[in-house]
UniProtKB/TrEMBL annotation:
This is Aldo/keto reductase. One of its GO terms (molecular function) is oxidoreductase activity. It comes from Ancylobacter pratisalsi. InterPro entries: AKR_Detox_Biosynth, NAD(P)_OxRdtase_dom_sf, NADP_OxRdtase_dom. It holds the Pfam family Aldo_ket_red. One of its GO terms (cellular component) is cytosol. Keywords: Oxidoreductase. Residues 15-314 form the NADP-dependent oxidoreductase domain. Signal peptide: none annotated. SUPFAM superfamilies: NAD(P)-linked oxidoreductase.
């Protein structure tokens, strides 16, 4: 399998990352273990989670996903063969996003405890905290790297201007830099990444691991009419957002390529992201083992230039 470098680090990952947001939520512990077993049996080892997963569920406090992953790694004894990415800074009850140094120091220890490991491969700032200077944030991460608790750092949900500033501060102060960016990116949501973030990432050799790679399930093709979307809580939010002329045009293009290749639309949607030179690995989750096959198949689908052009045209976001 092709392996790709995370930024300028020495960490190599496959071209797909399994999202852990569902673990301990829509996938219970037993199901999560089966999904994770199937992932590694297929030769993949890159898993992304966050301390805040899944605090949004009634009765949850956050850390549920990390705890499931930690129990699974402990049971399988496979920590050294995995690349584990998690995040800090989401609202874990402190009332907002926070990247203050003392908070990061406490949060990383809590994540390490839940993950039952002594190091995190990729530790990411989940959200921007404009009240905390990048100098302070990066110095906090420098200490974690020196202590062996973190190998590489990354950022998620940063604007282009803030990403540029963070990289500038790291260079000027000789502090660890963000080696990766985790933005929203898929066939439906292209402009936010391609317009400003992609040039910065490419110029600075940042690894990019995109989230919402299947547009909250829309690109699987299961939501094709308002009646389809009404069948699930997740689907209801897609009616106004994607069930329109452009969205249906994208689905039609996915159908054409998928049918020709005898794979699913989801597989093609992920393969399109993988084919973009600036992308390291899209993140996709599965709440059932049966869903994982379509996700992992994307790593072995090499789209032709004509297929990419067809999808590009259908999803075009600018004239």
């Amino acid at each position: 399998m092709e392996m790709r470098r995370l930024g300028r680090s020495d960490i190599l990952v496959p071209p797909l990352c399994l999202g852990g947001n569902v673990f301990g939520w829509t996938a219970d512990e037993a199901t999560s273990f089966r999904i994770l077993d199937a992932l590694t049996e297929a030769g993949f080892n890159f898993i992304d989670t966050a301390d805040v997963y899944s605090r949004w569920v009634q009765g949850h406090v956050g850390g549920e996903s990390e705890s499931v992953i930690g129990k699974w790694m402990k049971a399988r004894g496979n920590r050294s063969r995995l690349v584990i990415a998690t995040k800090v800074g989401g609202d874990m009850g402190q009332g907002g996003y926070c990247l203050k140094p003392d908070y990061i120091a406490r949060a990383v220890d809590a994540s390490l405890t839940r993950l039952q490991t002594d190091y995190i491969d990729l530790y990411q700032s989940h959200w921007d905290d404009p009240d905390t200077p990048f100098e302070d944030v990066l110095e906090a991460y420098e200490k974690l790297i020196a202590a062996g608790k973190v190998r590489v750092i990354g950022a998620s949900n940063l604007s282009a201007s803030r990403l540029f500033e963070a990289l500038a501060v790291a260079a000027r102060e000789k502090l660890p830099r963000y080696e990766t960016l985790q933005p929203e990116y898929n066939l439906c949501e292209r402009a936010g990444y391609e317009a400003e973030l992609e040039p910065i990432c490419s110029r600075n050799a940042l690894g990019v691991i995109s989230y919402f790679s299947l547009a909250a399930g829309f690109l699987t093709g299961k939501y094709r009419a308002p009646a389809d979307a009404a069948k699930s809580v997740r689907g209801k939010g897609l009616v106004d957002k994607y069930l329109n002329e452009r969205g249906l045009r994208i689905l039609a293009a996915l159908d054409d390529v998928a049918q020709a290749r005898q794979v699913s639309p989801a597989t093609v949607a992920l393969a399109w992201i993988i084919a973009r030179p600036s992308i390291t690995a899209p993140i996709a989750s599965a709440s059932k083992v049966e869903q994982l096959g379509d996700v992992l198949a994307a790593a072995s689908v090499n789209l032709t230039a004509a297929e990419i052009a067809r999808l590009d045209a259908a999803s075009a976001w600018k004239d």
